[in-house]
Amino acid sequence: MFASAFLVNVLLATAAFAIPTSRERLNQRVARRLGLDHQSGVKVASSSDIAATGNTTHAEFSSNWSGAVLVQGSGTFKSVTGTFTIPTPKEPSGGSGTHSASAWVGIDGDTCGTAILQTGIDFTVSGTRTSFDAWFEWFPDFAHDFSGISLSPGNSITVSVVATSTTGGTATIVNHSTGQTVSHTFSGQPALCQENAEWIVEDFESGNSLVPLANWGTVTFTGASAGTSSGTVTPSGATIINMEQNGRVLTNAAASGSSVTVQYTGP
Predict the structure, then answer these.
(1) What is the mean predicted confidence (pLDDT) over 76-91?
(2) Domain that holds residue 171
(3) With bands split at pLDDT 50, 70 and 90, how would you rate the model's confidence at 27?
């Protein structure tokens, strides 16, 4: 999803300790896709930042993204995939109310400003209750929920996007724990640049501000790869992005071989 400078006012009324309704979660996702551009808030890591996060190369910071991004020339990336275990989201230390985050893979949205193809899982916690949503999107259209798939903490999920052209492709989510697969086919969409491949955990936006961020523990994308016209590449050596809000680094992300790990380190 774009972490872009586009903003939208989406009214969301969520009572304390209440799980958002399906309509409210849709409104959150509409807002999220028109959220903050992480490019506008990226900075090169200082030595103290590196010491705090444990990342030693390619470190950048964002107010709402954490994970790994590969950046190549236009027309490079044809597919992106990764498998992770759905976490049990928790309220951060001292937090109360509703907290959320989203884990996804995508093509574009970092250096490409025109479109993004992505799919992922939202997770929300309110008190002792949790909820999960599977979604697909080709920005600038907003995200849509998949139906026909159930989601629970501990489920093994593979998320994949494939660009069959710059204006068409597919988004697929497989729940290995239940045997369910859902997929959506796109056509006639705004053109992708195909210059970014991403594995991200995000703090998304509702209205003009980021939603309270859930503590997801650790999300690890395994079997992470991106398809190109000349073969398959892994996220090893990708640009690492950590989430920083109000001067505090909230995540520790790393990429090694075919895995991307995004650990929540906030309060």
Answers:
(1) 97
(2) 22-264
(3) low
Q: What is the CATH classification number for the domain harbouring 34?
A: 2.60.120.700
**Annotated catalytic residue within 24, 60, 198, 202:** 202
Residue tagged 């995004």 (tokens):
262
**Omega before 20 cis (within 30°)?**
no
Residue 14 resides in a domain: no
Q: Residue 202 catalytic?
A: yes
10, part of any domain = no
For residue 4, being part of any structural domain is answered with no
Confidence at residue 154, expressed as pLDDT on a 0 to 100 scale: 98
Give the model's pLDDT for residue 205.
74
| pLDDT tens for each residue of 201-258 | 999 777 677 889 999 999 999 999 999 999 999 999 999 999 999 999 999 999 999 9
Tell me if 5 is assigned to some domain. no
Residue 17 predicted with pLDDT over 70? no
> Is this structure's pTM higher than 0.90?
no
23 CB-near residues (< 8 Å, 6+ apart): none
How many separate domains does the chain show? 1
